[in-house]
């Protein structure tokens, strides 16, 4: 009998308040390189702290909702 891998679905309410680029990539199901490209967009809510990039969860979800309407 084959055992199927259960895919973990990330729910918005389970996201931490501040996201890493890897968490954004996992949520959007894209690669980390593409997620870093997103953080360079002027309309994307990325926060840079030195070389570190973080994304506020609520701002990210709002950005996502607004861009899904386009």
TrEMBL record:
<dbReference type="InterPro" id="IPR010093">
    <property type="entry name" value="SinI_DNA-bd"/>
</dbReference>
<protein>
    <submittedName>
        <fullName>Site-specific recombinase PinR</fullName>
    </submittedName>
</protein>
<dbReference type="InterPro" id="IPR038148">
    <property type="entry name" value="Tn1545/Tn916_Xis"/>
</dbReference>
<dbReference type="InterPro" id="IPR041657">
    <property type="entry name" value="HTH_17"/>
</dbReference>
<dbReference type="GO" id="GO:0003677">
    <property type="term" value="F:DNA binding"/>
</dbReference>
<dbReference type="Pfam" id="PF12728">
    <property type="entry name" value="HTH_17"/>
</dbReference>
<feature type="domain" description="Helix-turn-helix">
    <location>
        <begin position="18"/>
        <end position="67"/>
    </location>
</feature>
């Amino acid at each position: 009998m084959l055992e199927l891998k259960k895919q973990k679905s990330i729910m918005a309410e389970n996201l931490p308040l501040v996201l890493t680029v890897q968490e954004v990539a996992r949520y959007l199901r894209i690669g980390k390189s593409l997620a870093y490209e997103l953080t360079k967009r002027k309309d994307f809510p990325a926060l840079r702290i030195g070389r570190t990039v973080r994304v506020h969860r609520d701002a990210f979800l709002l950005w996502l909702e607004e861009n899904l309407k386009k």
